[in-house]
Each structure stands twice: as C-alpha cells, then as structure tokens.
# Entry
Amino acid sequence: MSNTTVNNRHSNHSNSGRKRVQGSNNRNRNNARPAKKASTLDPSLLVKEANHSVVEKVFRSDRLVKELPIDSKLKHALQVKGYERPTEIQDRTLETLLEGKDLLGIAQTGTGKTGAFLIPIIEQLLHKRVNPYALVVVPTRELALQVEEEFRSMSKGLGLYSACFIGGTNINRDLQNLRRSTHVVIATPGRLLDLTDRRAIDLGKFKTLVLDEFDRMLDMGFIKDVNRILAGMKQRNHTMLFSATLDKSQQSMINNILRNHVTVKVNKGNSSADAIEQEVIKLKPGEDKFRVLQGMLTQNEFKKVLLFEETKHRVSRLCMKLNKAGFQADQIHGNKSQNARQNALKAFKQGRVQVLVATDVASRGLDVSDVSHVINYQVPQTHDSYIHRIGRTGRAGKVGKAYTFVA
# Structure
C-alpha cells in the first residue's frame, strides 16, 4: 500500500502553518474500539488529501431503467422520479433479490441502497399483493422517514401503501394507522416492539425482512431487539441485510440471520473517504476554539456545514452560540421532538440553514445533498464514527472537505 501524504493544519489556515505527515497506513483503522471517555484516535489518521482519481471514477450501469426486468408500471414510476440508470448496488443485486435469494449488501449511504431493496419489494407486490408483505427495520427515526418517503415516490400511482412507526410520535396514531391496508412497514426497533407487545403488529405475518444500517443497529445496542424481531417472524422467507461496514465479529450473527445468501460489496475500502480532503485544526495554547470556528464559517465556501458535537447538551449550547453570533444554525439530537428534528433537517436541505449541529444520530443514513463541509468540534471516539460522519460530504463525484478540531 502506498504511503499517503496528509495535511495537518493549524487554526490560522495559512500554508506556512501546515505540517506534512508521511506514511499514514489506513488499513487497520476500522478496528478502532470505542473509548470510555476521551477519544484515543491518532489525529494523523484524521487528515488526508482527496484522491481525485477516485472522485472521477463513477459507476455507470450498462442498462437503462427501461431495460430492467421489472414491471412496466414500476419502470414508469422510476423514470418519473428521475431514474435513468440503476446505481451499482441496484444493478448488481436486482436479479438476485427478484429470485428470492437472501442478500448481504455492503454499501455506504448515498449509493442507492434504499432503492436496491425497495425496487424488488415493489416488483413482488405488483405481482402478488400481500398485506402485510415486507418489514423494513432501521436504526434511526430520520432514516425510517427517508425510507418511507422513497417508497412513496417509487410506488406513486401503483396502489401500494406503507406505514412508518418511530419513537417520539403519538403511539395512538400508530394504532389508528395499523387499521389501514399496509403492504410495507418501516420502523425503528423500539417502536416496532412496542406495537408488537400491544399485539397491534403480528411479526409472524411478514414474509420479507430488510435490516438496513445493520452495523449501526449493533453500535446502538439493538442486538436484543433484532433477535426478538427475528424470533417473531415465523413466516420469513426472504431477508436483505445492508451494512456500511462488515466486522469479522458480526459474521457469525449475519450467517445465522441469512440463509445461503449472496454478498454484494460496493465502494470497496474507504472510497467515500478517499474523495474527501481531511484536515486537523490544531489549536494553539489558549486559543478560542469557537472564534476559530466563526472564522471558518464566515468564508464563502462554507455554504452547507454539518457540525458534530459529542453530547446533546453540547450540541444545544453550540447551536445557541452560533445563532447568537449571527449564523443561521439549527440542531438535531435525541432530546429534540420528532417534529423539531424533521423541521431542522428540512431547513438544512433547503439551504435556509447554513449549519446543522448534530450528535452521531445524524451521522448515518441521512440523505442530504451538497454538504460542503463536515466539521468535528471534538475528535470522534472511533474511526468508524469518523468515517460515517465525513461520508455526508464528497458525494456524487464531488470533492468534500472535513475538518477535525484537536486541542
């Protein structure tokens, strides 16, 4: 593996303040384990020049949507949505999933993996309408809402119905929604099991299961919930499991979940990170971190910034300081109501907010285009967390930029 030249930038952002660090080896960084208190990550691993050859290498399917082996009504719905060609994960998994084979898909957010499992689900439902048919389990509320939005847009006019059940919403409204015809249920583990315990949802009726962002589910401590869901799905005959990373320690559990599965991996290595310029901001003794941040945000290039802090309270404080300093900023974390989280995300997507301050709840699964910069106000505790955070920028063939503050 060739040595990587990386930048280590001092807070004055001048070229004279840079150091060159030679010989950073990236192969073993995904094996980092969470620190109990402070991060133990080596800052030299958080800086890297973008590989422009990677940015230019974009997968292009040989097939147009109209050439896919799916119903003409679904083709039309996808074309109306703007699909011209399938993404790599969609192209390589479609026939496998239409044949009913179990799948392990290793793909980063932004690769079209949501479409990879929704297209075959919709196709199967067009031929045989089963109510309910598929259960999609995701780790976060935001991801659940995005999956439901994607299903609705893909199945528009096809007479198919979905329901989304997440924490932070009125469970009585969920109970009312369950009285309606529902082909696809999208849910977070906690709310799904709440409804199961109330006997409002019978897991035994679902035939197809999707576990999306599986690695994140395990990180968030959902392993017992996942096992309960699996145990309740007595008629499950088709399972799709998607994960951004694959740890050897997870392989045994995956093999127990999937039956004679096919594995498809896209974005080999850290290709999403390869398309991102990564730098450390080294603070001088006594230097005010917030003033340095202000100086960065006043630059024209910082148009849409995802700013990470470690805790809910720190996120709130930092967001308030930014607003007080005159910046358009909003926040997203677990203590915010679901409405507030959705409104903040919408404002950020639409460009009405320059800075979205977030905990790791926003670092996975969020589909926000044109994020110009990711800033880590504190060093993340694990390298996996770092990779998932910075993966929000540098997408769709563009070079992204990520900065990490180091005292």
